[in-house]
Amino acid sequence: MTVKSSTDVTTVVCQMFSETLEVQVTPDDDIRHLAAIDSLKLMRLVTRIEDFFGITLDDDAVFVSVTIGELIAEIERELAA
Question: For the chain, which has fewer Cβ within 10 Å, the N-terminal or C-terminal residue?
């Protein structure tokens, strides 16, 4: 899939979270309150996101992001850089 817009990034990231956690998620979901998430799953998910988009996310940005939408914004900043 070629990512062309913010909507595409949102769709891909939410799909990755949903597949990893086996629950439906939205950009408004609080990462810390997702029942099936732990730091290991989060880091695996971040690695998958980085590989897919060809970017490197700052560890601080990942753990400071409260919502999936905030993480998506960080991904978009990296893609624009």
Answer: C
